[in-house]
C-alpha cells in the first residue's frame, strides 16, 4: 500500500520544488532523504504553518475532506456550493502544499487531522464522542431513546452503533428537550462544538433531568468528554445546520474597491512616494550622523530609553512613532547596533559608511528590504506589555514573529488593486480575513494599521496606492531603476542670501551636507532645506578645526551667487575673536597675548563664579574644570578655545564612532520567507534524491572525489572561482579542512557565497552543506 513518503518519492523535481517553495521551513535543515521529509512535514509545527498559509476556501475544502464520508470532487462541490473547477484548484493547492496526497481520490496527509481538531466547527461523530462512556451509561442512553432496554449482553461496540442510529435524525429529541435546551445547542452549532459545564459526567436520565443541560445530556444531544467539558455530536450539529458544512465560504476573494472616477495623473502617485522615500533616506542619515557623534546609551534591559527616542524625534522634527520607525529600520538594515555587552551605546556600523557611498535609490532599497523582512514592530514602542512593563524601541520586546508575513500580505493586496483604486483598512481587513483566516487576531489588526502608516512614511505608497518601484521590491526585482528617475539628483550648489540663510534646493551631496550641518543650523525642511548661519554655528565649525579661509572657500565653491557681505563679515568677526583666549588645565587656566583682556575679565562681575586668579600678566588660573571654564567664558560673550598641553588647539567636536555587530549574531533575525532562493531549493531537491538513492543502494552511490592531493589556490582566487561557479552553475573540486584540521576533497555545486560561507550541494556526501570559506584550501574547476 502506497504511503505518504512513497507519494512524495513519485513526484517529479518540479513538484518537489513547488512543495519546498510553499513550505520553506521544511528545509531547516535539509532532510536526509524523502522519508525524513515526509516525517518532518507531518510534525505539528510544520502542519500548523502550512495551514496558516491557506485561504478561506482552500481551508474549507481541507476541512470538508476530513468531515465528508466520501470526499470525492463531486461531493466537495455539492457540500461547498462551488464549481468543479474551483474544487480542482483548491485540491491542487493542497497537493502542492503536501496537505493532501494521492493521484486519484484525495487523501489527508499525516498530521493534518491533529492540526484541525474541529474541522468545519464540527465535533466528532457519535461513534467517537461516546466511545469513552461505560457500558452501563450507554445502556441507559439507548434505553431512554429507544423506549426499551437493549437485548442481550451489553456490548459497548453494539451499543455505540445503536446510539449512532438513534441520533441520525435528532429532530424529535431536540424538540422534546425544550426551547431553552435548543438555545444552548444553538451556541455550539457553528462551532466551536465544545462547552464548559460543572459536573458534566453526572448520572442523568430523561425522567430525572431538570435543567436544560441535563435534558441534553440525558438525550445524547451533548456528550461529556470529562468532568467539565461537553461536546456537540457531529450528527446533531449537521441537523441543526440543515445539512450545510459552512455558513458562507466564497470561493473567490472579496473584491477590492474600484478605481476613482477621476484618476490622478500618471505619475502623481509615484512622485509622492519617491518624495517620501528620499525624505526617509535623509532622516536615517541625519539620525545616524548625530548618533555617530553623540551615541545614546543602551539600557540595562536592552533597548533605547524613552528620553533618547523623544530627543531623536525632536531633533529630526518627526512624530515619536516615526522616530521609532527610523531607528528600527536602521537596525534592521544593519546600519545600527550596540557596542559591547555592558554599558554599551547605540552606534552606526561600518556598513553605514558603505551605505553612504550608494546613491539615494540604493540606500532606500536597503532600508525598504530591511523593513519588509524584519520581525520587529516599531509601532509597539512606548506601549506596555502584558506585565505592564514599558516596551522600548530596539528591545527584544519589539519582536513579533508574524510581522514580515503580514507586511508582505498587505502590500500584495495593495498590488492587486486596480490603478487609481485606494484600498482602505476595512477592505484590507476583509481581504486578509479571506486570504489568511487562521492568522487573524489583535496582533494582525494592529500590524495592519502600522503597516499602512509605515509604508506611506517609507515611500512604498503614495496617496494610498502602491508605487511601481514598491511592486518591483515585492516581486524580488531591483526597484532602483524605477525609483531613480523620480528622485531629485543630489545638488552641490546652495543659494546664500544676505539675511544669513542658505537654501539647498534639493538633497545635498554627502560631503557638502556634512560641512553645512557643521557651519549652519537647519531652520526648516521640505522641498528645500533652509540653513541659518549664526555666531554659534560658525564657532562650532571653527571649534571642529575649520579656519575662516576654509569656510569662505567652501561656501564660495558651492554658492550659486557671490557670498553676501554680511556672511563674510560674520565669519571674519567670529574668527578674529575665536582662539583669542586659550583655556588649559591647572585645574584650568586662561591665556592670552593681551593683558588688557584679562583685566576686563577680572573686572566683570560675571567672572566671579569662575574663581579666577592671575598667575602672570597674560595668564589666569581657575579651580574649575576646563569644560566648565570654557562654558563660563562663552556665557560672558567671549570666544575661547581649548588648548592642549603643547599649546595647540584642541578640536572639541568628537570624532564619529562606529560599532561592529556581534560576530555570533545576525543584525536582525529573518524568518523563513515564502520566496526562498530557487537555487537553494534546487540543490535541496538534488540532495533529497541523492539521500534516497543512498538509503536504498548504500553509501557507495555517492560520487568519489578525484584522486590526488586536494587543490590549493590563493584566498582571493578561491572566492572568485567559487563566485564564477555560482554564476555559471558549474561544479568545482575543493580542498577542505574540518574542525580537527583533517584535509578532505569534495565535489560541490555552489549555490551561494555570502557571509563567509559557501553553500552548495556536496556530491561526495549527497547532501547540501555549508563550508567556511577560511577552511577551503583551494578550488579547481571540473567539466
From TrEMBL:
The keyword Nucleotide-binding applies. Residues 694-714 are annotated as: Disordered. GO terms for molecular function: helicase activity. It comes from the Bacteria. The keyword Nucleotide-binding applies. Residues 694-703 have a biased composition (Basic and acidic residues). This is Helicase-associated domain-containing protein. Keywords: ATP-binding, Helicase, Hydrolase, Nucleotide-binding. Residues 718-779 form the WYL domain. PROSITE patterns: WYL (PS52050). Residues 494-616 form the Helicase XPB/Ssl2 N-terminal domain. It holds the Pfam family WYL.
